[in-house]
Design a protein that fits this description.
Blueprint lengths: L5 E6 L3 H12 L4 E7 L2 H8 L6 E5 L10 H11 L4 E6 L4 H9 L4 E4 L7 H9 L4 E2 L1 H9 L2 H4 L9 H11 L4 H8 L3 H14 L5 H10 L17
Length: 229
């Protein structure tokens, strides 16, 4: 095992977080940070240029051209199926965490926990194991998903959920189409299908659903465009 290192790429839109993670990982002999990215566009470009085994990525990086959250993670998995993922996020809403878990993401670290939790999370991801930092573990264990969510069976598809999240964050249908590289008609159809599945008729009720299920921040709080998650 002498010389063994897990090659890691870090994606986060907060320079301070990148510096903190770089410092934490610099003293770990089994991990080598081979690159950093500040948004999803830079991340996907970087993955085409360097070899890595694990990506540590923030959940919300709204500046990128290829989306963020589950849309980004899905794209990454399709293009680079052998690369493992650790999600590093400030989001502690049960519905968001449940979405990640149901998407098969098994290593999640909350930014509200000590940064050293990244080390076991990276090792777990590399070995296809599971690691939740304490805050994440507590939330996942304590929530009755069937009572919490109006969509307990995952009625919305991944793409429909992402459209709802972006719409509730304040983007227009045209802006979502540009962000996700889909047609305006496709985005409009996915939004309509989501509302039909949820038995929602008004946009204001769609916004309420997004807030209740962690897809958007309440009015006056941080939205998906704030870059604080």
């Amino acid at each position: 095992m002498d010389g063994f290192k897990i090659k890691v790429v870090l994606a986060d839109d907060h320079p301070g977080m990148i510096m903190g993670v770089q410092h934490e990982l610099s003293s770990v002999g089994t991990i080598e940070l081979v690159g950093t990215a500040a948004d999803s566009t830079a991340l996907m470009t970087l993955l085409g240029q360097v070899q890595c085994s694990v990506v540590v990525s923030d959940y919300a990086m709204p500046a990128g051209e290829v989306g963020d959250g589950v849309a980004l993670f899905g794209l990454m998995r399709r293009r680079y199926p052998d690369i493992k993922l650790v999600v590093l996020t400030m989001l502690d809403n049960p519905a968001v965490l449940h979405t990640l878990v149901t998407q098969g993401i098994q290593c999640i670290v909350s930014k509200s926990d000590a940064i050293n939790h990244l080390v076991p999370a990276i090792h777990a991801a590399y070995t296809e194991g599971k690691y939740y930092s304490p805050t994440v573990e507590k939330i996942i264990r304590s929530v009755d998903w069937n009572r919490r969510s109006r969509n307990p069976d995952g009625v919305l598809s991944q793409r429909e959920a992402e459209v709802v999240r972006l719409y509730a964050s304040g983007l227009t249908v045209n802006e979502i189409a540009e962000r996700l590289h889909r047609s305006k008609k496709t985005i409009s159809t996915q939004k309509t299908m989501a509302m039909q599945k949820l038995s929602i008729e008004r946009d204001v009720d769609l916004l309420r659903y997004a807030i209740e299920n962690g897809l958007a921040a309440p009015a006056g709080g941080n939205t998906g465009q704030s870059g604080n998650n």
